Amino acid sequence: MAVIFPSWTNKLPHAIGVGLPVVALAAIAGVWYFFSPEFTDVGYRPKQPIAYSHKVHAGDLGLDCRFCHNTIERGFYAAVPPAETCMLCHTTVRKERPTLTPLRLAFKQDKPIKWVRVHMLPDYAFFNHRVHLAAGVGCISCHGRVDTMDVVEQKKSLSMGFCLDCHRNPTPNLRPVSQITNMRWDAKIANYDPKTDPHRKRTVEPPLHCSGCHR
Amino acid sequence: MVQSVEQIERVDRRVPLVLGGKSFHEVTEAIAAPIEGRTPKLWWIIFSAAVTLLGILVASTGYLFYEGTGIWGLNNPAGWGWAIVNFVFWVGIGHAGTLISAILFLFRQKWRTSINRFAEAMTLFAVACALLFPTIHVGRVWLLYYVFPIPNQMQMWPQFRSPLLWDVFAVTIYGTVSLLFWYVGLIPDLATMRDRAKSALGRMLYGFFSLGWRGSNRHWQHYEVAYLILAGLATPLVLSVHSIVSFDFATSVIPGWHTTIFPPYFVAGAIFSGFGMVLTLMIIARWAFKLEHIMTMRHLENMAKITLLTGTMVGYAYGIEFFIAWYSGNQFEQFTFISRMFGPYSWAYWTMVSCNVFIPQLLWFRKIRTNVKVLFVISIFVNIGMWFERFVIVATSLTRDFLPSSWAYYSPTIWDVAALVGSFGLFFTLFLLFLRFLPMIAVAEIKGVLPQANPHHGHTPHAEESHAGATPAPAEAKE
Hints:
The complex is a heterodimer of chains A (215) and B (479). By secondary structure, chain A is mainly alpha-helical. Helices cover 37% and strands 0% of the residues of chain A. By secondary structure, chain B is an all-alpha fold. Chain B has 16 helices and no strands. Chain B has helices spanning 24-36, 41-67, 82-106, 116-137, 163-196, 200-209, 217-250, 262-288, 297-328, 331-342, 346-358, 366-369, 372-399, 414-437, 443-448, 473-478. In chain B, helix 5 (163-196) packs across helix 6 (200-209). Chain B is globular, with a radius of gyration of 25 Å.
């Protein structure tokens, strides 16, 4: 029989036999790691127009989350405060600080500060802050220790899997409704069990069907 | 009618499957000629027409992806239109190829050898066309990976209780097994083409795909076993794939769909439509490439008989559907079937019945079965009729369901037509490339059914001795 292929091609089957699984595994691992929201979204830390520190305000000064994000218990969305809220204090505190110039300008001109949104859900996902807080899910469960962040960043993946983990088993993320904004609350120290909480009228049964969140 | 012993064809005097008393070499030459010779003008003409249609498919699909499925005639209540009609139509066509290649192989029907390669190629290309429609009809094609059970950050799995998902598995398995079966059968022939190839590129390509076949005894043993196993694997698929396709309808609650006869009825229809398509293609190919001595009149006649059988089974199913609609006492079911016959789609219904049941009855006559031109026309009618069958099922039931307030009349748009016509472009483009570059008849296998392949060939059988042929002549001489 005539020779068609050069002799090095004899190595091809072995090379393919070894190489193909390696490439396939690398592709799977690559997609798994690099395409997941754990990689693409966690750690998102946009530069804000004013270097506002949650660590100073919520951590050191101990402001309650609801002082600024005042809609969370009643509305779908967590409101970002207008300049007036800041000026409740900053008309007297740190009046002259140059880094607050944009704030004073916004207040004077009655124009909103263009804060950059950090935690974003897609439009087709229906998320209501109110029901989650009423069920006793603390801020920390989705937003992390905001009271320790100088610059707020996304700590959790906020992927569908992340939501479903809690919807399937909400108990570890439940706390007394009075403690939802408390960043230092610990279920173990408080020895908390939602089943025995006298303030709970009914058990928490989050929806697992598609239209629970995709309406 | 009881046949007398004289009338039965004697095993040792059967008409050979390949006519003209050709030698092994002449058979190889005849099958290799369409590949090695100059490209015929006719091939170019049909090929350019097919590629034009393929262009229509690409353009209309591009617009579909850009604009969405709203360009089709879909709306409430007919949420399923030509896309599923075309899907079922093309999947069905594939079944004849698998029946010929797998079931007839297991039943040792040697006449299949002349046509199995051809029919299997048709299966593959039909499955390709079939897979096209569910793929493009989802609207957001970039989310198609949702149909596969891939672990993902959404922790979302396909709906395993949905027959549409069963379809995904049934058709992809079918496509894979058909491809393997076809390819394994091709290997010895690819080696033949490699050894005959004149250009270096031809040697390389045929050589690569023939996987180093040298025709040794061991190669043949492995080949035969592999082929038999694949035939065994493909055989249940002939029945299972179209049964599962029929579940798309049968597991719903729509009147006219929710019936237990659907799986067998769909399988019979699939084989019927497939044989129609094989006949259409083969009648053209055997004439154009002058292979009438290999794909003989006997093959056409055999296929015509299967067409008649399956067509009559389909007709029986149509009848039983009506009977059960009446017998069930379910007024919705009864209304659906009366509406099929006399309602807004009665034109489609009567087209279907005429093409699928009435016209094939002509095949009872031998004169018609052996008349190539008439057979060709009948095969075209079968193709048309089976497309209309799926259209009737989809359109009549969806547009006349339980609530008269939601009744409507479904009609396609120009883009529906473009997708169907374009799928024929895809099918014929692939098929013409196959005819031009691969042996359309299994060269190695066909030699096994030539008269001279019989170990007793050349020995004059002693007609009076009951063991004629069983005992070799030299042994007799010793006695």
